Structures are given as C-alpha cells and as structure tokens.
Amino acid sequence: MSKLAVVPGSFDPITNGHLDIITRAAKVFDQVNVVIMNNSAKNSLFTVEERMTLIEKATANLPNVQVASSNGLMINYAESVGAVAVVRGLRAVTDFEYEMQITSMNRVLDEDIETFFIMTKNQYSFLSSSIVKEVAKYGGNISELVPKEVESALKKKFQQ
Ligand code: ADP
Fold this sequence. Notes:
Distance between the termini: 48 Å
Number of helices: 6
Number of domains: 1
Shape: globular
Strand order of the largest sheet: 3-2-1-4-5
Bound molecules: adenosine-5'-diphosphate
Radius of gyration: 15 Å
Number of strands: 5
C-alpha cells in the first residue's frame, strides 16, 4: 500500500528549510502532500495561490510531491487524503513546546495518524519565513535561504 504523508504549514513563503524537510520526507514516504493551511490568524504576505505556485516551482524536481491548500482542521485534511503521517520540521528547542501541544491535540482527534519530526540541516536551523521577509524588506541578500523563484517574488513584493 502506498504511504502518504502530509507536510502542513503556512509557507509564507517557502524557504530552503521547508524544502529540506519536504525533500527528506519525499525520500521516506511514497507520496508527500504539502498543504498550505489557510486558517491561522497570521497576516500573510503572499496569497494562497501565490504560495502554492512558489512551492510547485520549488518542488518541480520531486515527482512524488503534490501541493494543496485547506481552510479547515489539518487533521481532517490529512484524513480526507488518506494520509498515514504528518511530517513537521524541527529547528531549535523553541519549536518543541508548540509542536508537542499540536501533536498531542492531533492525537486526541485521530490517534491513527502518526506525527513525524525531521530535524533540519544545521545551516537552516535559524531560518524562518518571517526572518526572510524581514531581511528581504530591507534589501538584504537572501539567495542562500530561499529558492530562486521565492527570491524574485520577494523582491517584486517589496518593490511594489
Ligand atoms: P506553521 O505556521 O504551521 O508553523 P510554517 O510555514 O512556519 O508553518 O512551518 C511549517 C513547518 O516547517 C513547521 O513544521 C516548521 O517547524 C517547519 N519549518 C519552518 N522553518 C523551518 C526550517 N528552517 N527548517 C526546518 N523546518 C522548518
């Protein structure tokens, strides 16, 4: 049976840290479904469509990765696509408490879907979408931190 994992997040926008997690997940699972969760209170810079396009371009070399979006509960989405697992990235200890809370809640909602954590490469352990946006806003060099198409999309956003 083909094993599908969901990689949920805001991806506003996708960074090389996210991409590292997605690439690693795609080596372990048969199918990886990257889903943009559109129900958080966060103010986003990119629309869901823009974020989807950026992820599609960045993962074009990974044939078992699909991109989607959802407005509801992540665990309901995972059930609806028949996922066996949820994959999240871990950077530093600061991620741990938040992730533990979400994972425990998801387990109450559906104990059959397992959550897996993948540690990012050391070089991306400080990296977040927010810090990338902050640096890009003031014209800093982000070429090592995000895929090419994200770099140009950010430049365009902040020129407007
Ligand atoms: P969320 O709002 O759900 O935290 P994000 O888009 O910020 O969404 O992150 C999605 C997932 O990617 C989370 O599991 C987060 O921990 C992980 N992540 C974010 N940045 C990195 C990074 N630099 N390295 C590894 N994982 C990361």
